[in-house]
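Final report, section 2: Outcomes. Of the targets proposed, FAD-dependent oxidoreductase domain-containing protein 2 is the one most frequently requested by collaborating groups, and we therefore present its record in full.
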Amino acid sequence: LGLALYAGSLCAVSGAAFLYHDYCVIGAGPAGLQAAYFLQRAGRDYIVFERSHAPGSFFALYPRHRKLISINKQYTGKSNSEFNLRHDWNSLLSHDRRLLFRRYSRDFFPNADAMVRYLEDFASLLKLQVQYNTAIIHVTLEKNEQAWNGHYFILTDQDRKNYKCSCLLVAAGTWVPNVVNFPGSEYVEGYETVSINPEDFAGQTVLILGRGNSAFETAENILGVTNFIHMVSRSRVRLSWATHYVGDLRAINNGLLDTYQLKSLDGLLEGDLEDLAIVKDKKGKLHITLRFYLENRNISAGIDSITLPQDELDNFATRAPYDRVIRCLGWKFDFSIYNRSLRMMPGKGNIKKYPQIKPSYESRGTRGLFVLGTASHSVDFRKSAGGFIHGFRYTTRAVHRLLENRHHGVPWPSTVYPITQLTNSIIKRVNEASGLYQMFSVLADIILLRENATAFEYLEEYPTGILAELEMQTGRKAQSGLFVIIMEYGRNFSGADKDVFYYNRAVGEAQHAWQSNFLHPVIYYYKRLPTEREMRLRPPDWPLPRPDAIHHIVEDFLTDWTAPNAHILPLRRFLENCLGTDLRNFFAESCFLFAFTRQKLPPSCQQGYMTMQGLVGSQELRQHAVQAGLLQDYTHTDFLGDRPPDSHDGSQEQLMRDQGIPVRPLQHLVNAKDE
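The predicted structure is given below as tokens.
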């Protein structure tokens, strides 16, 4: 009994030692700070754990050569702040105008030190709840039926202090270096520790393992001082301008491609790194061979006893010895701190460096655990910008809105408009929205139609991957059909092997809009919400299931979709066909005419003229309408009865013909007036 009481007291003390918060965020990088901002604005109980003494510790070291590849465009010719975020790839979302990245650097490709300063100010100026010098070393679950998700998350730091939370947001990024083990890999230097002083490579021959931006960044730094540089990777080089994926090779780092193709000694090779082996000779030179040559051989016996490829093939590409071999293979997620009870499993194939998550960014293994930032990139890897600040600042906001609805009963933000504003609302968003523009094919605007299509509800930047769960995830109802607005590239325009500069690469005519290659708006119409089965069985490379109707707004060289004939008119007619109504706006005279000639008035007349609403006319407005043929010129006629019954030609007859109404004289109206 004494032992039982003692054990119980220990459990009580242990339970009291837990520091509880509703939300725990691991990592104070850009994604962690962005999540903290939204939680703080909503008044939620949260804490951010950061292992370093300051936020953004990753950027204090990387990129090693200090130049970011995220653009920082100072001028766009526009004053619209939402539009300008399309070309600001570094700022986080906030209400504070001081926290725009252009105030920290004027460079188009900024120095990483500016990002460190920016993140420090973001955390301090907004007074975010960040606990520094706290490294979370273990995460496990504690079952509890009263918890939000049926369990609590128990976090332990380096000082064995415990924390408990109901919802866990993992924003720790991918920071563990990718390492390939092969015979002789101990001679390889890592990107994270290699010298960044070009003089240390003067007169040397260098082999770089990898073909991403870190590999080319390293090559660019030493290109002018080395004998030559060779680069080996299992896949061919992927240029971002061809793939339209910002994580592929950017032009700022591709100097080695010039020297390779112009035969200035440097070169690129393809091969599986796990098949390689490195042998060091007595002079310290590194020789590349293949693993199978070393089978049943003793490397320590010396290079003379080892068969090299050039012994059998005298023009073997890498027969020249190297002075240094550098590994630049990127990073992966740290799975080591998560207990097996959380079932945090790596993805498969080319996304194995990321944890498995749903399109809602929630872990596939544990409810209530969400992955944010770079580590969430498996949702849109090589498809969109979710692994970078200018992408995950929007996906983080989307996750926050999902959590607000799930745990606090706050529906997804929306705005209700009359149906007459449908065309204008879409045109405004596709010309301004930065979330749609950056997270193309991943985030979408949703338009929920009200009964009889008299009004609609507009939801911004909802994840397309969970469209079937929209009612549950947002607290909104989709009972009368919906439109989904996303941005897309052409289906066959992006790829490492694509020629994106061919002569007829762009289209300009509205009738060929479906063949648009460059980023352009696409509107999907569904008479009902797609099911989960339809989402799973959607066509390959389609972000959404096959709709009841689809409309492409033709690509535009200026990304300005406001042309009346090329952009707005085809969109309006598409919407009218889907809704079976007339979305044009009419003058009062036309509405008056329709009231006597049609059984059903256009929505603009129903919601405007018939309710005594609308703009007060002026002489300038009337004159403009007359010149455009929209109104009859009454400057020489005072009364309708002063002219013959058949004298009304022009605009009224044409307007009726446009509506498919038989043209007949208004004799009965004239007679009524005479009486």
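The two ends are 109 Å apart (CA to CA).
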